[in-house]
Amino acid sequence: MTQTQPVDTIPGPRHAPVAVPTAGQPYEYRRSPLVEPDWARFPGWRHVTREQWENAQWQRVNCVKNIKQLRTVLGDTVDETFYADLEADQKALATMSMLVPPQMINTMVPFAPMTTEAFLADPVRRYMIPVASDRRTDWPSHPYASRDSLHEHDMWVAEGLTHRYPTKVLAELLSTCPQYCGHCTRMDLVGNSTPAVDKLKLTLKPVDRYDAHIAYLKAHPGVRDVVVSGGDVANVPWRNLESYLMRLLELETVRDIRLATKALMGLPQHWLQNDVVEGLERVARTAARRGVNLAIHTHVNHAQSITPLVAKAAQTALDVGVRDVRNQGVLMRGVNATSEDLLDLCFALQGEAGILPYYFYMCDMIPNAEHWRVPVWHAQQLQHDIMGYLPGYATPRIVCDVPFVGKRWVHMLTEYDRERGISYWTKNYRTSIESADLEALNKRYAYYDPIDTLPEAGQSWWAAHRDD
């Protein structure tokens, strides 16, 4: 509705008050202080104390791993149709097994009555506890979807060490997390096998795997940046993680270390444990003394997930000397793929929790993920629509992680066939598996939009070529 507001008038007999129409802004910022939802609203947690809730071990022990445990938590707040929907997904479609900490469940339908309809519509539930009715039946997977869509395993130079970019490596220390996200890009390795996916396995003992990483880095002084991930580093026993990080810090060529952990949001209690805080401070002090940038990268997809405990965990990391805490989210339909959702999340991250909005990735082309993925043009529109609201340093970049290319801002494509949903991208470096490919920098690499988002002609084309 058009609003009017009074304006000052110029004194004089011929001037009367004039109302000037104002259109308002597409997004209106309103500060929303963080609140920890009341976990006692769930029948299964009515008698849980604050001491229990804030204990990391209690959170881990009480993770929801199956439908029976979810029933115990939710009681009769959702009906049998939901559980049947969930069971159908678990038996045939899910690429990740169920593992959800209480902290994450507590941010689902946080401030409204819990009903089946509310739970189904909840954005956090939609990617943490997917059900069969969420997924598409026409195109559940893109024809070019693959288990390791970014070919990280193909680029292993040692078990769990991906050398994809010239100066950076990804170190997968383990294949487990405190929680499993339905859209996980490493669904071929991370977590338990499901009926839909027989997972790959790490075979070396952790000590041998870590030794192999360090040996490779010593032999390749051109690598200066190590992303320490998995799985999630919160599942590495702290003494083992600290030892690994200290070994990295002994390498003069390593100048950046990033710890990848969704648990900063999904299990903040872990990062608030005394031994973890004290150990992180030792690592941060050593990094600062040696001039190495130490950061934590977490993964938050919706503003509901930001609570006072999350803010406390982030601030504690900063207080003990971690240089930055940054967020890398994933764009997903039904979760956050609107400018309002993204801006609400970014203001909660940056303004309330001290976490820098850094990247939003387009959801990768893994199996059974088409209901989450957005087309490139949608991502471009979102980047356009969030500009100008946040501080420049806290305005996230929306990127497409193109197979064999890497992260590219969504406006960097070289050609785009909107009808068939095929975008083409170029790159300026060779991955570790292309050292002998003289044409690698001259090629165009394709990325594909979800087929259901295409115009009718494009959908018909793909239907005709479904089996090609």
UniProtKB/TrEMBL annotation:
It comes from the Bacteria. Keywords: 4Fe-4S, Iron, Iron-sulfur, Metal-binding. InterPro entries: Aldolase_TIM, Lys_aminomutase/Glu_NH3_mut, rSAM_sf. SUPFAM superfamilies: Radical SAM enzymes (SSF102114). Transmembrane segments: none annotated. Residues 1-21 are annotated as: Disordered. One of its GO terms (molecular function) is 4 iron, 4 sulfur cluster binding. This is L-lysine 2,3-aminomutase. It comes from Micromonospora siamensis.
